[in-house]
Amino acid sequence: MAVWGERLAGVRGVLLDISGVLFDSCEGGGVPIPGSVEAVARLKQSQLKVRFCTNESQKSRGKLVGLLQRLGFDISEGEVTSPAPAACQILKERGLRPHLLVHDDILSEFDKIDTSNPNCVLIADAGDAFSYKNMNKAFQVLMELENPVLISLGKGRYYKETLGLMLDVGAYMKALEYACGVEAEVVGKPSPEFFKNALQVLGVEAHQAQ
Amino acid sequence: MAVWGERLAGVRGVLLDISGVLFDSCEGGGVPIPGSVEAVARLKQSQLKVRFCTNESQKSRGKLVGLLQRLGFDISEGEVTSPAPAACQILKERGLRPHLLVHDDILSEFDKIDTSNPNCVLIADAGDAFSYKNMNKAFQVLMELENPVLISLGKGRYYKETLGLMLDVGAYMKALEYACGVEAEVVGKPSPEFFKNALQVLGVEAHQAQ
C-alpha cells in the first residue's frame, strides 16, 4: 500500500477502460475479468473520482451499462464517456449529416441526428454489418462528396472476445482511407479531446489523473 | 498515323489491360468499351506482339476469356497474364499453404494448391465474400502465425462497373495490414515481376513494350 500511496500522490481522479479491462464480451453478454468488480467498488469507496472511458461502439451506453450492472459492477450511464455522444456533438457543431455504418445497437444514439442527404460518413465497430455491400455504399458516398469527411469511432486494430480476437473498426477505417484517399477523423481514444472531455466532467486536470 | 509511327518506333510488343480498358463489367457480364474490339483486332493484325495483362481476380482466366469472346474480342486463355496463376507459382516455390479469401469463381485456379493447415493468407477481389466473418477468419489465421505472410492479388483501390465504383482488394489488404501489423506481398500489377513475366512470354524487352 505504501508503494501505491506514493504512486497516487497528487492523483484525484481515475479513468477506467471497460472492454478488455473490466470484462470480456462474448456472444450475448460478457464475463467480468477476475477482481475487476471489487476493484471498481474499492475505487468508488475511496477519495478518488472515477469515470469510465470506453471506445465501445457496438452497444449504446444504456445497453453497455445494463450489461455491466448485471455482471455486478457499480456503474451508471452518466459515469461513462463513449464515442457516439461525442461524435453527435461534433456532427451538430459542424452541420454534418452522416451516412452511418454502425451496429444496429447504437443506432439509437443517433436518433436526433439528421442523416438525410449525407455530407459525411461515420463508422463504428459495426461487426457483421461490415459487409461488402455496406462498405461499398460508405465508399461510394465518400467518393461522391466534394470534401469527403470520414469520422471513425475509435481506430482499434482488434479487441478480445471470449472466442478470440476480433477485427475492430480501425481496420475498416484504413480500408476506406486507402480507397478514397482521405484521412479519418477519430472520435474516441486515443484522441486527446476525448480524454480531456472525460476529465472535464470529473473536474480533474490531466496531471491529476491516472 | 505519322505521329503514331514515331511513337511506336522500336516498339515490338503491347500489353493491354482488360477491365476498364477493354470492357466494363456488370452484374452477370460486361459491356465493351467503344472501339476496343476493333482496336484489339487491328493490333493483332499488325506486326506487334500482343498480350493481355490483368489484375482481374473475381473470375478465372477461363471465365474471363469466355466473357470477352462473347463480347466480340479475339482473345484466348493463353494470351492472358493474371495474378492467380502467378500466385500459385509463388505458393509452390515457397511451400506456402494459403487460407484463401477469394471469390468462388477463382477457387478453381487453386485446385492444385495444398490449403491444409495454412501458413499464409491469400486475398483477391472477393466481392461479397468480403464479409466481416470471412475477414475476421483471415485476420485470426494471420495472428496465429509466427511469421505472418499476407499475399494480395493486386492492390487496387476501386474499379468501375456499369453501376458505379466498387471497392477493390487493396482496401481489404490495407485493413488486414493494419490489424495484423504486416505488409502484404502484392502479386499482380503494379509489381515489376508481374510485368516482366508477361513480357518474357512475349519475348519482348521492357523498352520494346507499350
TrEMBL record, chains A, B:
The keyword Nucleotide-binding does not apply. It is an enzyme of class 3 (hydrolase). Its main location: cytoplasm. Its cofactor is Mg(2+). Belongs to the HAD-like hydrolase superfamily. The keyword Repeat does not apply. SUPFAM superfamilies: HAD-like (SSF56784). GO terms for cellular component: cytosol; nucleus. It comes from the Eukaryota. It is found in: Cytoplasm; Nucleus. Transmembrane segments: none annotated. The gene is Lhpp. This is Phospholysine phosphohistidine inorganic pyrophosphate phosphatase. Its EC number is 3.6.1.1. Phosphatase that hydrolyzes imidodiphosphate, 3-phosphohistidine and 6-phospholysine. Has broad substrate specificity and can also hydrolyze inorganic diphosphate, but with lower efficiency.
